[in-house]
Amino acid sequence: MKIEVLGCSGGMGKGESTTCIRINDNLLIDAGSGLGRLSQQEMLSIEHVFLTHAHLDHICFLPLLLDNLFEQLEAPLQVYALPEVIKALQTHIFNWSIWPDFSQLPNATNAVLKFNPIVTNQQHQFAMTRLTAISAQHVVPACGYIVQEDDGAVFCFSGDTRFDQQVTAAYNQLGAIDALMLECAFPDRLADIAIKSQHLTPASLAEFILSLDTAPKQLWITHLKPSFRDEIWGELMRLNLPVSIRLLSSGDTFFLEHDRCAPET
Ligand SMILES: [Zn+2]
Ligand SMILES: [Zn+2]
């Protein structure tokens, strides 16, 4: 499984892009500003976009992607999300005021954008790759994703979430996870803001990891607010979690196999 972290920051700035992950060239999880790293040709090869939730840092480049590809798309771009997320996009983004409704263009029966409502625990199969939405707890309806490949590789992405036993119970159904990408937006001294905005801090991330029956083989940390990056990473290191931990950067690429993960050099 090829995993390209096009964006993984909790904010913006030089070298910082917001959440967008490309899997095996043709599938995206979220459509944050990291999507802007792709060439026009690479954008054209995207067929499926799975969204974790409707917050701007996760969807901001989806309208621009459709505009870029409008004349060239031969099949509709398939966008998958919880029904509440689709409703939010239709009401607040693709509403003809902020952006055209591409699900009606060039006409309703032959549109370039197709919304596909999803439910958690339902599997979507594409060639050798299976995607399943998994529970998350955030201030708006949200999910994470499990990506599995026929060779046994398992990649999980939490999306934006707080720690909750119900959330980790879903991960415990999976067994061994080769790589878990987990958000950690705030340092512990801002735990009150993290609780209000339903994000993780190093302390609640530790609770998350320790409530898993089996530690993931790799833990990838994402969604740090840029101004707290060093502080959060310092706190995470001091936790000495019983797992191999890595701070992701926008542009990181991995080749994940069951029991083996090679970063691109
Ligand atoms: Zn969010
Ligand atoms: Zn976010």
Task: Outline the structure in words.
The protein is globular, with a radius of gyration of 18 Å. The chain has helices at residues 40-44, 56-59, 62-69, 83-92, 165-172, 191-197, 202-210, 229-238; strands spanning 2-7, 20-23, 27-29, 48-50, 77-81, 113-117, 123-126, 129-135, 143-149, 154-157, 179-183, 218-222, 244-247, 253-257, 260-263. The chain is of the alpha/beta class and 265 residues long. The mean pLDDT is 95. 23% of the residues lie in helices and 27% in strands. β9 (143-149) and β10 form a beta hairpin. The protein has one domain (2-263): Ribonuclease Z/Hydroxyacylglutathione hydrolase-like (Metallo-beta-lactamase, Chain A, 4-Layer Sandwich). The strands form 2 sheets. An 8-stranded mixed sheet has the order 6-5-4-3-2-1-14-15. The structure holds zinc ion (2 copies). One zinc ion is lined by residues 53, 55, 138, 160.
In short:
This protein has eight helices and 15 strands. It is of the alpha/beta class.
CATH architecture: 4-Layer Sandwich
- How much of the residues is beta strand, in percent? 25-35%
Please list the strands of the largest sheet in the order they lie side by side. Answer: 6-5-4-3-2-1-14-15
Amino- and carboxy-terminal Cα gap:
16 Å
- Please count the beta strands (DSSP E, at least 2 residues each): 15
Q: What small ligands are held by the chains?
A: zinc ion
Number of domains: 1
CATH homologous superfamily descriptor: Ribonuclease Z/Hydroxyacylglutathione hydrolase-like
Order of helices and strands: EEEHEHHEHEEEEEHEHHEHEEE
What average pLDDT do the residues reach? 95
